[in-house]
Amino acid sequence: MNDTKAPLWLKWAREIQSMSQTGLAYSQSGYDTLRYHRMIEIAAEIVACHTGLSSGPLVQGFSAQPGYATVKVDVRGAVVCTGRILLVKERKDGRWTMPGGWADVGEVPSEMVAREVLEESGFVVKPRKIVGVYDSNRAPKHLEFYHAYKIVFLCEITGGEARPSDETTDVGFFPFDALPPLSAYRTTERHLDDVKTHAENASLPAAFD
User: Fold this and answer.
1) What does the DSSP 8-state code read for residue 29?
2) Does residue 76 share a domain with residue 56?
3) Average of pLDDT values for 40-59?
4) Is it the case that residue 148 has pLDDT exceeding 90?
5) What is the CA radius of gyration of the chain?
6) In angstroms, rounded to a whole number, what is the distance separating the alpha carbons of residues 207 and 98?
7) SS3 77
8) Strand ranges in the chain using DSSP code E only, listed in sequence order
9) Do residues 23 and 32 make contact, with C-beta atoms less than 8 angstroms apart?
10) Which one of 44, 90, 140, 172 is at 20 to 30 Å from 10 when CA atoms are compared?
11) Within 10 Å of residue 49's Cβ, how many Cβ atoms?
12) Model confidence band, residue 1 (pLDDT cutoffs 50, 70, 90)
């Protein structure tokens, strides 16, 4: 992983967990299965040692990831109106982000980001282009265990009105030079810089890590 921000212990734990998950998917003997389960426990113990979390629930979470280990996908809707960016206030941390969330199996990416924007902000949008594809774990001080990619779509409002949701407490449009405190796990200044650039010049190719 090209995650230059994460501490070494987190990189090691991620790699051990992903190797054990993949090993369990292809294990053909009871001995190998026991070894891979022990590797999951070791990954959980590393995380628990550095975070104060209990290793038991971590083992359960890591064990619940089936099959070959792959990255997760997060989608975000970038909605720019009269030079301002649409942001929603996250209920979990009280900070602001572009609306979006984890990708669901079986859903088309463009339809998924439109649904997330509607659910979290109240606005109906149409995705127009991809701003960029990012390594989500490169966010400052990001300690999310699972590796993830973030896809940011530039979207156009076609209807609706501002409306918070179960996950958000407020909805607003902000000038790019006067942003509120950002939820860095979800939206960073780099993402918004790219959004501003693409909103001003839609012919630009997508950014990527």
Assistant:
1) S
2) no
3) 92
4) no
5) 19
6) 17
7) strand
8) 72-81, 84-90, 96-97, 100-102, 123-135, 148-160, 168-175, 207-208
9) yes
10) 90
11) 12
12) very low
